[in-house]
């Protein structure tokens, strides 16, 4: 008889507008969210490790054009893709992260390889790719990542001199694009993974919270696994992921109390928008956001699938 297990995933939080969401796009996004959750859940159902589950789930979202990670990554000021990702296993605090990679189809896989095949925690840019190719990762041309939507989005932002759109052609142009997953496996392990293309029109090799353990990603067996999405600079300043874990560990808050206190408390007060997905040490899931929406899905301890987009769902 199998033991309890669960998984939750997200595809970014922010201003997601119903009036600009076509029926077809709505269905496509929800289908991808379900596919991601089921990919990770299937691994858990067969007794697989939580790390394998979160990587599999995130890969589905990285391969979709609808999310700001992998294939759908936003473009930098120089019309390039620069991607960040991180993973953490809750059993022994093993972590791996990459930042500023340009030719890796699934950065979340490379982050796991940093964890498993190097003595390091975080590799960046050309060095991260040199490491990747030494492990037989396939070199992926930039053309694979550049979509018409992201190119048009970049040109619009360059014209306005912005890093976030005030006028949206798409329902989520003001969304803080990140994808992530958290899982609780039958062995009681927790794991988290996060991946992103960053922010449109970014310059100077900017890196956000998705590559930073304790800011965008955290996992600790018996306590919490969390993946964040939002305004990365604020999430780094508030070390959001580790702060939630600390509130649970030391203040004995439950997962809902801890998430809400951070996301709707000091983070929001200082102007930080976004959200988190979290699973506690018993496999209970919680979503928290201070925005109008967050692409999200989960399959809980009861085996029921949930897929949602808007905050009021």
TrEMBL record:
GO biological process: proteolysis
Gene name in the database record: iaaA
Catalytic residue list: 178 (nucleophile)
Span of the signal peptide: none
Pfam families, per the entry: Asparaginase_2
Protein name according to UniProt: Isoaspartyl peptidase
InterPro entries per the UniProt record, alphabetical: Ntn_hydrolases_N (IPR029055), Peptidase_T2 (IPR000246)
Gene Ontology molecular-function annotations: hydrolase activity, acting on carbon-nitrogen (but not peptide) bonds, in linear amides; peptidase activity
Gene3D superfamilies: (Glycosyl)asparaginase
Site (Cleavage) residue list: 177-178
Swiss-Prot/TrEMBL keywords: Autocatalytic cleavage, Hydrolase, Protease
CDD domains: Asparaginase_2 (cd04701)
Top-level taxon of origin: Bacteria
Binding site for substrate: 206-209, 229-232
């Amino acid at each position: 008889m199998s033991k309890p297990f669960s998984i939750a995933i997200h595809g970014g939080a922010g201003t997601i507008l119903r009036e600009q969401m076509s029926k077809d796009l709505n269905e496509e996004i929800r289908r991808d969210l379900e596919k991601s959750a089921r990919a990770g859940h299937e691994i858990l159902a067969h007794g697989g490790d939580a790390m394998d589950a979160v990587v599999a789930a995130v890969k589905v979202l990285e391969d979709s054009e609808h999310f700001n990670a992998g294939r759908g990554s936003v473009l930098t000021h120089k019309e390039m893709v620069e991607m960040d990702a991180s993973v953490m296993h809750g059993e022994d605090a093993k972590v791996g992260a990459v930042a500023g990679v340009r030719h890796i189809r699934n950065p979340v896989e490379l982050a796991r390889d940093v964890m498993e095949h190097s003595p390091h925690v975080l590799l960046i840019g050309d060095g991260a790719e040199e490491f990747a190719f030494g492990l037989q990762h396939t070199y992926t041309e930039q053309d694979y990542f550049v979509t018409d939507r992201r190119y048009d989005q970049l040109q619009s932002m360059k014209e306005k001199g912005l890093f976030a759109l005030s006028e949206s052609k798409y329902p989520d142009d003001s969304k803080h694009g990140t994808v992530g997953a958290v899982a609780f496996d039958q062995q009681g392990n927790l794991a988290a993974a996060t991946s992103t293309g960053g922010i449109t029109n970014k310059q100077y090799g900017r890196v956000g919270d998705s590559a930073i353990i304790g800011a965008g990603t955290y996992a600790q067996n018996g306590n919490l696994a969390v993946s964040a999405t939002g305004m990365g600079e604020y999430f780094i300043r508030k070390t959001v992921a580790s702060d939630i874990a600390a509130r649970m560990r030391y203040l004995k808050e439950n997962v809902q109390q801890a998430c809400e206190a951070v996301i709707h408390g000091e983070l929001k007060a200082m102007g930080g928008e976004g959200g988190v997905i979290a699973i506690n040490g018993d496999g209970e899931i919680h979503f928290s956001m201070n925005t109008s929406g967050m692409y999200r899905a989960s399959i809980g301890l009861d085996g029921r699938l949930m897929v949602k987009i808007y905050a009021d769902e």
